[in-house]
Structures are given as C-alpha cells and as structure tokens.
Design goal:
The chain is of the alpha/beta class. A five-stranded mixed beta sheet has the order 3-4-5-6-7, with helices on both faces. The chain has a two-stranded parallel sheet with strand order 1-2.
C-alpha cells in the first residue's frame, strides 16, 4: 500500500472513523484496531447507551486480537534465528516462552500464525461481561511484553467498552420499584448466589432485621454475611438503620453486614461505613453494576425466572 492510500484515523471525526472501521476501507485505516485518541474514545463512551449491540460487537471484533502475525514478530524472529542458527532450537529447553516457540515455528517452518486470537470472548457477551474482561486482562498480562503498542491499546479499549456497555448499563429505576419487597429479596439472593455464596431468604417473622443470609466456605474466603434489603423509591437511608445493622452483625457473630437499597445513603451513613469495615453499603448505582456483572446485562428480561428459581430453591433448603 502506498503512503498516499493510508487513511489516518486521527484526522477523522468519530462518525467517519466508525464508518471506515467496518467498511471495505478498513485495511487502509490507521490505526484500525483501537481508538486513535483518548478524546475519540471518551466521545464514544458518552453515547454508548444509544449504540446497538451489533455495532458494539463489530467494533470489538475489529479491536480484539485475531489469529495473526505482526511486523514486529518478524523482526523479533530474525534476532532469535540469528542466535540459534537452526531448527533444533525449537525442540530444546532454551525456548523459554510460548511466544518464542510460536514466533520461531512461524518463521522457521512457515506454518501457523504467531498470535492466537481472542475474538472468542464475544460469545461471553452480554451474559458474562466480567468473565470477558478477565479473559482480556489475562491475555494482556501474558503477552504485554511482546504485543505492539496499538494492540495493547486495543485490548484496553475493549475492556473499557465492555465495562461501559455491559456492566455500567443503567436500567430504569422502575424495574426495582415495581417489584414486591419480598421478590426484591429473592433477586438479591440470586445475585449473591451467582457470587458463589450459599444463600437463604429469611422468613419475615423470624428475620431479626435480616432479609438474606449468605455464607461462603472457601479456603481463605470464609464469610458469614447478613443482608438487609431496602426497596425504597425516594427515602435516603440514614445512620440509624446502619447502626442497627452493626448491632445485628455483632449479635449474629457475622463477618459482614450489607445493606442494599434502591435509593442512596446519607453522608453520615457513608462516614459510619468507612469507620466500620464489617459494614458495606450498596446503593442503586452499585447494585446495577453488580447485577449486570453477575447476572448478565439483560437480567431484566429474565427477572421472573430468576426470582421464581430462588423461591423454589429457598423452599428446598
């Protein structure tokens, strides 16, 4: 490709960049695997809730690593080959990393590609955004010393897009307000069950102010958690409720008390939380992120199923 044929992404506005990214001009665009500037990325994030899932997936498909080989790989391979001289190196114990093995295999045997693709994480979306981000983070950690800078930027962009679209996605508040308070408790139980807790919803006549019990018996992570659920529409949670929860934590000899609300907490409550590490306060925005992370972004579409399954499971315990 002649230099005159290159389309420099920095010279485009966001709309034109996105058009070129998914068009036949993709190969002429530079860079074509990440946002060219932080400003363009921020502009995109400002409108991400109005974007379609198909568009999000198309961008991620461009940005994620494919089965491929980059120019820097050939440069690195030549340096390695100059040191070893022959193919026997491939079978020796001197190949310290999988990258070395792949790059030598590619340029000594002319087989395969150096980089194993990461596009499979698209199948984790929208239901498992946390796992998708973890996969990207692990890939970055394993390969950051050898990947070209644009590819590293692309992986960071992908994580940011997934977090903004699928974890920070804001559902209408009315979803919670239209729930019966007991159904809200079952939703919270389902959330903590998805976080690997063994959960039970308490009977209202014996709850002592506790709506959900959550226990974890993993080595190094043994916890006994008591949870209060406040499905309010307007009321701010004051310090009185928080003090009461701390008393229950002590009485139950629990490791933590969590108060979850569909509104927000007063500043005094937040200060009290900061001074008492056995308490955790989860407000509406925190709750949205947790539900999106662990039940999938579109948990609202299967809300009845989630709640009913918890009701059945709770009866069988």
């Amino acid at each position: 490709m002649n230099i005159d044929e290159i389309i420099y992404a920095k010279d485009l506005n966001l709309s034109d960049f996105l058009d070129k990214l998914i068009s036949k001009d993709f190969n002429r665009l530079y860079p074509n695997n990440c946002f060219p500037t932080d400003g363009m990325m921020n502009e995109y994030l400002d409108t991400i809730e109005q974007r379609t899932d198909n568009e999000i997936r198309s961008i991620l498909r461009r940005f994620l690593i494919h089965n491929s080989t980059y120019g820097s790989d050939e440069f690195y391979a030549k340096n390695l080959i100059a040191k070893i001289g022959d193919k026997t190196y491939l079978n020796s114990n001197n190949v310290k990393t999988e990258y070395n093995r792949r790059v030598l295999t590619k340029f000594l045997t002319k087989k395969g590609e150096v980089w194993e693709g990461l596009t499979w994480i698209l199948d984790l979306l929208p239901h498992f955004p946390n796992e998708a981000i973890k996969a990207i983070d692990a890939y970055y950690l394993a390969n950051c010393l050898m990947l070209p800078d644009n590819c590293l930027s692309a992986l960071s962009d992908c994580s940011t897009i997934i977090r903004a679209r699928y974890i920070n996605y804001k559902h209408p508040k009315e979803i919670f307000w239209n729930l019966h308070p007991i159904d809200f408790e079952y939703l919270i139980a389902a959330l903590f069950e998805s976080m690997n807790y063994k959960v039970s919803v308490t009977k209202s006549s014996y709850d002592e102010g506790i709506d959900v019990n959550a226990d974890k018996n993993e080595l190094g992570h043994k916890e006994t958690v008591v949870i209060q659920c406040k499905r309010y529409t307007k009321q701010t949670i004051g310090i009185g409720d928080i003090r009461n929860l701390l008393g229950v934590v002590h009485d139950k000899k629990a490791t933590k008390g969590i108060l979850i609300t569909t509104t927000k907490f007063s500043s005094e409550s937040r200060k009290f939380e900061k001074n008492n590490p056995s308490l955790e306060l989860i407000d509406l925005s925190d709750l949205m992120r947790l539900l999106n992370s662990y039940l999938g972004t579109y948990w609202t579409e299967k809300l009845d199923k989630i709640i009913n399954e918890q009701k059945v499971n709770n009866k069988s315990r």
